[in-house]
Specification:
This protein is an all-beta fold. Strands 1, 2, 3, 4 and 9 form a five-stranded antiparallel beta sheet that branches. A four-stranded antiparallel beta sheet has the order 5-6-7-8, with no helix packed on it. Strands 10-11-12 form a three-stranded antiparallel beta sheet, with no helix packed on it.
Length: 164
């Protein structure tokens, strides 16, 4: 099972990152994803750009980490994006992702985080459908194409949008 993303985070279409998630089914399950932020007072969200540091390990599973010292260039916060890929059997797997931020100022900071995900479960968007699933820990959206299934869970999330 592998999860991979584009190398240049600023060079992809619409500030998203082209991704591959293979081994969890016979097909590549993802098309694009990425994280965005909006600091209080900004008029729009900004994509996290090229990281200041990267670390990857295959020991005990596939784990990775991207670090930003000052993602917005305003000396307000730092961020760490960590992920782990778990092979859970034949044609099954899990991808866990966590984005954490740290206020680097002495003042209060209001920041909104956005996660964009484009799943194409059978290498095609034509047959995919989604539904909201009850989850006491956050927002869960189930995506299926009739054969493949992928839940997306936003722990602690308070809003979502699905578009076609």
């Amino acid at each position: 099972m592998t999860f991979g993303d584009g190398i240049d985070f600023n060079a992809t279409f619409g500030n998203t990152v082209n991704t591959d998630f293979t081994g969890a089914s016979a097909n590549d399950l993802t098309w694009e994803f990425w994280w965005f932020f909006r600091v209080n007072g900004d008029t729009s969200e900004s994509a996290f750009g090229n990281p200041d540091g990267e670390a990857y390990s295959l020991l005990g599973g596939s784990v990775g980490r991207l670090d930003w010292n000052d993602p917005g260039g305003a000396d307000l916060f730092s961020a760490v994006f960590a992920f782990e890929v778990r092979d859970t059997g034949v044609d099954t797997g899990l991808l866990f992702q966590n984005l954490s931020i740290a206020n680097t100022t002495a003042a209060a900071l209001t920041i909104d985080l956005f996660r964009y995900t484009d799943l194409d479960l059978a290498n095609s968007f034509g047959g995919d459908s989604s539904s909201l699933v009850a989850n006491p820990d956050g927002i869960e959206i189930s995506v299926t194409d009739g054969t493949n299934f992928s839940p997306i869970v936003g722990y602690g999330a308070d809003a979502y949008r699905i578009s076609r």
